Amino acid sequence: MCICFKFCTRAVIGSVAAGTSVAAKARRNNEKNKITVYEKGEDISYSVCGMPFYLGGEISDLETLIPRDTNWFKKRFNVDIFTETEVVSIDEVNQKLRLKNLATGELFEDYYDKLVLATGATPRIIAPFNLNYQNVFTMHNMADTRAIDNYLKTNSCQNVVIFGTGYVGLEMMEQLKHRGLNVTLIQRSSQIMTNYDGEMAYRAELIILENGVNIIKNVTTKKIIEKDDIIHTIVLNDGTQIPTDLVILATGVVPQTGLVDHMNIAKGPSGALKVSADMATSIPNIYAVGDIAESFSVIDGSPLYRPMGSTANKMGRIAGDAITGGQLRHRGVLGTGIVRLFDVTVAQTGFTERIANAKGYEVEVLYNIKPGHADYLNGTENIIKAIVDKKTGKLLGVQIIGKDGVDKRIDVFATAMSFGATVSDLFHLDLAYQPLYATTKDPVLYTGMALDNALNGRRLLTPTKLYQLLQDGQKIQIIDVRSKKQYDQQHIDSAISMPLGDIRKRISELDKNILTVTYCNKGVTGNAAQNLLINLGFANVYNLSGGHKNYKMVVNYIKYSKIKH
Fold first, then answer.
1. What local confidence, expressed as pLDDT, does residue 44 receive?
2. Residues 4, 8, 49, 157: which is the catalytic one?
3. Residues 398-428: b if buried by 16+ CB within 10 A, e if exposed
4. Fewest 10 Å CB contacts: which of 49, 116, 499, 527?
5. Is the pTM of this model over 0.85?
6. Does one domain contain both 234 and 143?
7. Coil, helix or strand for 149?
8. Nearest CA among 12, 18, 20 for reference residue 330
9. What are the beta bridge partners of residue 107?
10. How far apart are CA 182 and CA 102, in angstroms?
11. Is 49 considered catalytic here?
12. Cα(537)–Cα(514) distance, integer angstroms
């Protein structure tokens, strides 16, 4: 029974991706309910993810990121959206909202029978910075975008410092570089892009450096030097001084739970609100969606907080259905993400190798280096790192770097993982083939095939593991099956040069009973040599995952990491 008999309102606090999705779905389900949305800011239903591209000039008109206004929602859905209206407090016992009209200062009240929190998150501000400095900005909403754009247009800016290397920081880095600024990225930890494994993030770091961006890691800010509330120099804890005209704080977000912190409301490890599958919180008749709500992993059900516009929209639709009696339920997320770094795309889904190991999985790891489409039509390489659970044969995570079809491959992997596909299932997918778009063995199919082989006797050895074994002085028989010319140019220390075609006639030179590792340039010929040796009775044969090309990159990363530490 609805206790708010005067109004009987489905109320929503917040009107960006999640909040407007709640209202639209609720109205589609029910024409009679009163649906009211309160928004503290001026804009509604805008594209947060598009904002950096306006600042870089790829979007010419900022208003294209705000396709709908309050009048549109009123006419289309009969939903009342009140902008510049702040919810000051929530009385969860009497289901009452106290509100303030920010334009007039007027205070008023409203009641609800179902309340959805879509208040999002607030940018994390790191010391010693604050937003009182004229040239320090976050990148969180349309007001931020307008403020940065205005500052760049009205001030002489050449040097910009960006703190944080998540997706927002990287997008701002790329776009401000396009705008002609000198960009420095600052990362507190020893690795950029912490949602990736270190050696994959290292590949991305090299791309950023090649495009003229400065990267400084493993540092914090010791002090700032300013004049008239404008910062002109940042002093890091290692003594480095960086001149700057503009500072962007892209150091993550904090769930905006202030309105409900007085309640005994359940929160997850991230500090976001715990919600059930229908987006209900632990407080009766209060739901939470978007960046204020914690999701869970599709893989193992563990709490997972990855604030994304796509997840916010999905959660909003589910909550809108739930508060009008529907049966939609949230199924979790994989944490899938993608970002462009100039002419290269980097994407990931699921667990990294590091996380999978920490969770106790016994994993097989494949590095698959294959063109995104036929090389005779100028196809370029995708570097795919895939992690599989040895026990179940199911994919745990994938990371991809490349210029060619990265987006469609990561989506195929994410889809397969969402439906519990095994790596053997991947090989049987009937994917679109035409040489302009794929290869006959698409990188997805080859990933499945190679991992299935690895789980059935054709074992893989990662470059990291081989390097560790060599450093430990373990006795290993390493066979370079490339041409003698390639071997002479560069090879792994202690490797024997034995091209694939010579193995049968030189088999007496090899010991069948010791650990043997085969490698070629990228892994395919190494696998052929591995099969041959296994068939000839060799007891313990591994193929080097990703071949010599991948080994060089990973070893460079290992050495680089030791220097940086």
1. 83
2. 49
3. bbbbbebbbebbbebbbebbbeebbbebbbe
4. 49
5. yes
6. yes
7. helix
8. 18
9. 100
10. 39
11. yes
12. 12
